[in-house]
Amino acid sequence: MAISSAGIGSGLDVAKIVEQMVTAEKIPLKKLESKAEGIQTQISTYGEIKSLTSKLGDIVSKLTRDSAWNGVNISSSNSTISGSMTGIAAPGTYNIRVTKLAQAQTTVIGGAGAAALAKDETMGASGKLTLKKGVGANEVVKELDISSSDTLTKIAAKVNEAGMGIQASVVTDVDGKERLMLRSKDSGTGNSFTVGIASALTKLGQTNSQLAQNAEVELNGVTVESNSNTFANTIPGMSFSVSEITTNSATMTVKTDTEAIKKSLQEFVDAYNELNDLLSKSTKYTEETKTAGVLQGDSATVSLQNTLRMLTQGISGSTGALTRLSDIGIQMREGGGLTVDSTKLDKGLANVDDLKALFANKANSMGQGGGIAVNFKAVTDKLLAFDGTLNSKTDSLERTLKSNGAEQDKVNKRATTLEERLYKQYSALDGKMSSLNALNSYVSQMVTTWNKSSS
Questions:
Q1: Which of 121, 203, 291, 420 could make a disulfide contact with 117, Cβ separation 3.0–4.6 Å?
Q2: pLDDT score, position 11
Q3: Do the strands 215-219 and 222-226 form a parallel or antiparallel pair, or are they unpaired?
Q4: Phi and psi angles of residue 146, each rounded to the nearest 5 degrees, phi first
Q5: Are residues 130 and 206 both part of a single domain?
Q6: Core vs surface per residue 45-59: b (16+ CB within 10 A) or e
């Protein structure tokens, strides 16, 4: 309210009069503010619906993929044999007996006959040290120049710098004498190597302390080998590792991970229920309290809820053994939510292929036969699209809210203009009243003077 002395001349409580008139002018604000609050609540609710729809969409999207149904658990009857998934592994049983473990080649270089050399003893002559590693087309050859002043430590450095996958180190015995130990960084016969010593390097000799060897197992009676103790390409979709030679066969079992599938289906049910509960709450009218949900009567929300409920009824045009969620114990409860009968679901998990078809089958050219997850994903994608129902509805509400704000601004502007005009008018009235009061006072004085003169 503006600071004013209006009313001094007239004796009126101008501030109170103006306040009452401005308050009357602002009466439409209450309705506009209440409406704006309702619109904002609707926008927030649609934000929640969008978030839960996105969550449901992510979950059903996973259920459309092979990875959701092809997971397996791998167990072994012997702790020295273990397996892990590398792709899509088929369920099955494998009998494995380990006959050999992989070894990396180790070669020792020292004096003649591989005897130890004195600490930091130099070669006394120059020549070539030739390293060959690998087999056939994978063979790599490098020649190292050895000088007369080189020690075993310097030769080890040159071998390591050669990048041959051969690790060189100098070992010292109890007498302080040295030998050069060369070891392949990788096991298996494919990583064996040879060392050629020039004849001029008379101080050097070599011996193999450990030959390269592949790991070898009998897999269901078939002998297979691997450069390492991990068999990565023997069984499609999985690898297995061995750590000990075994006398008897161990059993490795690959089973469908039904617990993971149950968890995914429960996540689907939970996400659906969360969205359904929000939609029900938002559109509900409570007779006892005469209160309506924030989206009660909103056709878009009601249509969305009906669409989602229809999707749970089953798949059209399917010839599979399972066609409805109720076939696997997922049923609709009062209020449109879903419940899970674990016993019936466990029976459904006995045939994962049929269960996968129920959720993940692709629709035909006529749009029929699509699995439940496929159909849900199509709907959620459409709802969440840039021009989809949820964004369109939110945009419409935000435009309405913006228009409401503009109307409030107009009311406030009219009230401010009225206040300013009233104070100007009452200020002008004060001026006139002051003049009239002054004239009245003057006339009264003159009358008094005349009366005295005449008496």
A1: 121
A2: 57
A3: antiparallel
A4: -105, 125
A5: yes
A6: bbeebbebbbbbbeb
pTM for the complete prediction? 0.71
Rg (CA), the chain: 46
Q: At 27, list the tokens.
A: 């009466």
Of 383, 336, 300, give the one whose Cα is nearest residue 52: 383
CA 222 to centroid of chain Cα atoms: 43
Average per-residue pLDDT for the chain = 88
Tens digit of pLDDT for each residue in 306-336? 999 999 987 776 667 888 999 999 999 988 9
Contact 185, 166 (CB under 8 A): yes
Structure tokens at 152: 């075993």
Name the one residue in this structure whose structure tokens are 């120049």. 145
Domain of 151, in residue numbers: 106-210
Strands (E) in 178-332, as ranges, are 178-184, 193-197, 205-210, 215-219, 222-226, 230-235, 238-242, 250-256, 285-286, 291-292, 330-332
Measured between alpha carbons, how far is 414 from 143 in angstroms, rounded to an integer?
96
Number of domains in the chain: 2
H/E segment holding residue 144: strand 140-146
Q: Would you say 386 and 307 are in contact if contact means Cβ atoms under 8 Å apart?
A: no
Tokens, residue 430: 């004060």
Q: What angle do CA 178, 180, 183 make, to 5 degrees?
A: 145
Looking at the fold, whether 110 and 92 belong to one and the same domain comes out as no
Residues 108 and 197: beta-carbon distance below 8 Å:
no
**Of the given ranges (262-271, 363-372, 375-384, 441-450), which has the lowest mean pLDDT?**
441-450
Whether 349 is covered by a domain: the verdict is no
Query: Are 230 and 240 spatial neighbours (Cβ–Cβ below 8 Å)?
Result: yes
Tokens standing for residue 374:
């496929």
| pLDDT for the residue numbered 433 | 64
